Structures are given as C-alpha cells and as structure tokens.
Protein: TraR/DksA family transcriptional regulator
Amino acid sequence: MPDDPLAHVVAALEAERDALHARLAGLAEDMAGFFEASRDSNADDEHDPEGQTIAFERAQLSAVTEQTRRHLAEVEEALARVADGSYGRCEVCGRPIPPARLEVRPMARTCVEHAPGRR
Structure:
C-alpha cells in the first residue's frame, strides 16, 4: 500500500503549528514581563527617558504576536483543507496548485495566477 502523498505536508504543517504555539507562549511571557516591570512604576511614556523605548518595544511585540497568530491561523486552515480533501486546489479556479508552489508555501490557497496581489 503506497504512503499517503500528503503525509509529509501534514507532518510539516503540524510541526509548524507546534512551533507557532510555542512562539506565542514565549511572546505572551515577554508581554507579561513588560506589564509586570511597569506595574509598580509611576512613569509615563512621555516623561520617562526609557518610556518611549519601552512603548516601542511593547508595540513591536504586539505586532509580532498578531503576525504569529495570523500565520498560525493559515497553518490551521491548511490542515483543515487536508482533512476535508480540498488541499492543493485553487479556491478560485479549482485547478491543482503546482507542487512547487505548495513546497514553497504549503499554506497556499490559490494557484499563482489567482494569488492575491496579482493582476
């Protein structure tokens, strides 16, 4: 009996999902550390010499966290497409997505022709 041709894709997506969950946990710890460090401080961002730096770092951490959440959602959606049998088919035209595209971007939902930003 031949191996499941999507087994390597599923394994890679599951590994990516696990890594993203771990990264989100680390980012949450970092954010908690920012809040804990500033909890007992009366300083505000405008008057504290380090306030602007801390505010920038907090904003940057928030942006990275949101980007990681979006990437995790893409991975989970790809796993759902594998489960429902629609993985590897363009959501626009229904044709197969070329294997080279899926290798580079396993979460791809469309063929290159219908990729967002094309036209």
Observations:
- DSSP finds three helices and no strands in the chain.
- The radius of gyration is 20 Å.
